Amino acid sequence: MSQATESDVREDGQIESVSGPVVTAVDLDAKMNDVVYVGHEGLMGEVIEIEGNITTIQVYEETSAVSPGEPVESTGAPLSVDLGPGMLDAIYDGVQRPLDVLEEKMGSAFLDRGVDAPGIDLEKTWEFNPEVAEGDEVGPNDIVGIVPETPSIDHKVMVPPDYEGGEVVDVQSGDYTVEDTVVELDNGEEITMHQEWPVRSQRPADEKQTPTTPLVSGQRILDGLFPIAKGGTAAIPGPFGSGKTVTQHQLAKWADADIVVYVGCGERGNEMTEVIEDFPELEDPTTGNALMDRTCLIANTSNMPVAARESCIYTGITIAEYFRDMGYDVALMADSTSRWAEAMREISSRLEEMPGEEGYPAYLAARLAEFYERAGYFQNINGTEGSVSAIGAVSPPGGDFSEPVTQNTLRIVKTFWALDADLAERRHFPAINWNESYSLYRDQLDPWFEDNVAGDWAEQRQWAIDVLDEETELQEIVQLVGKDALPEDQQLTLEIARYLREAWLQQDAFHDTDTFCEPEKTYAILGAIKTLNDEAFEALEAGVPVEEITDIDAAPRLNRIGVQEEWEAYVEELEDDMTEQLRELY
Amino acid sequence: MQKEYQTITEISGPLVFAEVDEPVGYDEIVEIETGDGETRRGQVLESTSEFVAIQVFEGTEGIDRNSSVRFLGETMQMKLTEDLLGRVLSGTGEPIDGGPEIEPDEERPIVGEAINPYSREYPEEFIQTGVSAIDGMNTLVRGQKLPIFSASGLPHSDLALQIARQATVPEEEEGDDDEGSEFAVIFGAMGITQEEANEFMDDFERTGALERSVVFMNLADDPAVERTVTPRLALTTAEYLAFEKDYHVLVILTDMTNYCEALREIGAAREEVPGRRGYPGYMYTDLAQLYERAGRIEGKEGSVTQIPILTMPGDDDTHPIPDLTGYITEGQIYVDRDLNSQGVEPPVNVLPSLSRLMDDGIGEGLTREDHGDISNQMYAAYAEGEDLRDLVNIVGREALSERDNLYLDFADRFEEEFVQQGFQTNRDLEETLDLGWELLSMFPKEELNRVDEDLIEEHYVEGESAETVEAEE
């Protein structure tokens, strides 16, 4: 969170009433959404309503023992984030206070209140390599220099979007802190490596384009059946225990984005700790560097103040947009958007606003749409192209997808990965239901897969979908009459579908090799199953009984392709063996 | 600063409204003296410059407009000392065992502060509960919060007691002293009956566990509002013992459903906009502030592990209480009515049960190399057997294939031999896993597609599946 300097602090007001995170103040001269400091301890809050002389504030910290009459100070500025080198590898709370710095300042493992810290280290020096020279013309968002921030990512220093721009009159090179001026313009504007941006406003961009490149996730069911584009939006709804968080973690680990912003919104503390402990040790599959080098974490766990939970989503997407402006592909994971919506509901009900559906405020749909609209594939003002992909987990109460948050999300997002408690119960992971899920990006992404993986990518996928659909229909009959009552060809289809589920759709996130599956391997596994299918049906036509076909001992090896590191040779041998064994039968 | 007022304007349910002329802090503790000299304690729920809303813990009976209101100028504190171990306290933290007054070393506000996620240590030390359905299939680790989802009339208390009695961390037991492997138990009772309470107390006394326990008792006939502070007292004590005194603490909270009912009562009295089924919209946040007080902290010896118990109204796990709980806790253990009527002890239904921290707490170096694979394979096989049971009811066993019959047999044996063990039996992990192998060896090796091939070679019990193989040939 950006800190207000002493001179910013303006008129004083007084607390009128306190009720949980909602505080009202009188005689406060503040604008809507201004950040204010509440009480003797200076708890951070934000103005959310102004009525006559009474200003209502949501406070981002615990309000125990705060009493009426205590002072309130306005900073005169809206809630903003600090943007500059030092954000990667960091872990923030919902208002961008670095948690490691807080631990140090508070001297305790517990989060005390009234402690503030800037979002980026203001004292650390960074190596600034200019990209402009004296006499160059620069405009808003133009890149003026590069800072090697982590081994994976070069941080691009840009002219802030609200500057006018002009001719460069002075350029520095070398080690500077983020507050030192590194480039000076003829109109007197000074550019530092540090800028601020209010979290609730979208950073400007030139044009939003139709995305045509997939965000390759290394997850077979996602890449294979329901791909998401770079710059796309996706929702993962599911009841508890169905694997939302594991899916989000898998995406954060393996998606081929340049930058990952992971927002833990109102979720478990231990889960965030897992990310903090795991990511520095994991290797980024594309660069080979530590995963943490491309990751920015925002952790506002379920027991941290509810108002900060409301703001953490905005903090996350603003940071994502900043990296997008540099021309990077950014993936933003929000886990979970339901907690964010509930935070809105809680604040709204304390304000005694008229509730909409299930007590959520009437503006729920608008807020969700606003958030997902900030994602996209953009032509930036500075000429680069960058993207923000937004993937939001949804936690519907009782696993009921008809509730307002799921429904309002589905109206906006183009990819829907429906998690299924039944699948989770039988340990089919990822428990993404292939009948309910969809991706509206399929058609626009197919050319990429066809050019980069295999020419018949779309065709082969359609075959798999058809078999799975047929299985669903057949299962209904099987439930009534048993499998043996089906004709032989249908029994065989069921067997093929079983391999599709077990060898292709299932993927072990905790297995060293299986956890990441490149699209080529996804294609090869499906290809092997199709080989079995084609050969098996030929055998059936030649009069071989179905029991003998399904009994060949090569087929179960399909289930082991996922865990093979040297899968090319394994698949080739397996296909040969299956073909040979089946042809021997007739 | 202890100003007294006689300015009560409204009394409604558990709430009292009073006018004030000096500012009062939010959450502050209040004492109200009734006409007949009795003192009631309460807490400030809303504070404005003119009036305050007070939630009275011990009920508002007997309070009238002439009662005097005293603001103590501090938020609710728990008196803490290591000597609390062995004591029985009321739901508001006063001794009720006839023992001496508590002489605190320290006092702490009961509204705990959130643990900085950066300071946490990820829980991965296996706790052996001696219950196969938990150890084998839904492993508990130190610092986890794993609730028991139960319903009226089911033996959840027996299960909780069995866990409290048997829980150890195996490796440390083999070390020079086994002091570290024993758990201090904090028992927080909210609105349970005297009989249930006796069951717990008797067991604690019989096994000598009382010496390393702190018991907080809010019984069914105690004021409902008091229940909202009981778990906070219990958890504040747990945090103190764990992070100051290096204990490994196991907190059992029962019954969370009663706690949530109390929240609803207060919400209704304040005329708040209700959320689902009349429960307050902030119930998620409120429950999270309890459940999240489990965990480990880097650089600290101790840990807080939580086993909250809740009874699902109408056996319905989509009810807001189990639903919100499931979203916060790291898994859940289901106690099942059908298994209970079949006489399975403990009647744990492993299919919907889950331990989220299991994967990182088991395996080579932690428990046993084959633990994860066995558990996955048994889950899949049992789920398949369960599915087939529906079919059998329609078409009969004869109509099913050899393979399907095998799965049906597995499901039966799994319940009768693996889950069933009795509330008094303590099975160590080796036993549990070997039993798993024995059952899995009913299947031919090719069926075990979730187990690593080398592990099958090492552990597969030859001969178990013989009859089926013959039958097929």
TrEMBL record, chain A:
Its main location: membrane. Residues 320-349 form the Rhodanese domain. It is found in: Cell membrane. The gene is atpA. One of its GO terms (cellular component) is plasma membrane. This is A-type ATP synthase subunit A. Pfam families: ATP-synt_ab, ATP-synt_ab_N, ATP-synt_ab_Xtn, ATP-synt_VA_C. Belongs to the ATPase alpha/beta chains family. PANTHER family: H(+)-TRANSPORTING TWO-SECTOR ATPASE, V-TYPE PROTON ATPASE CATALYTIC SUBUNIT A.
UniProtKB/TrEMBL annotation, chain B:
It is a peripheral membrane protein. The gene is atpB. The keyword NADP does not apply. It comes from Halorientalis persicus. This is A-type ATP synthase subunit B. Has multiple subunits with at least A(3), B(3), C, D, E, F, H, I and proteolipid K(x). NCBIfam families: ATP_syn_B_arch, PRK04196.1. It is found in: Cell membrane. The keyword Methyltransferase does not apply.
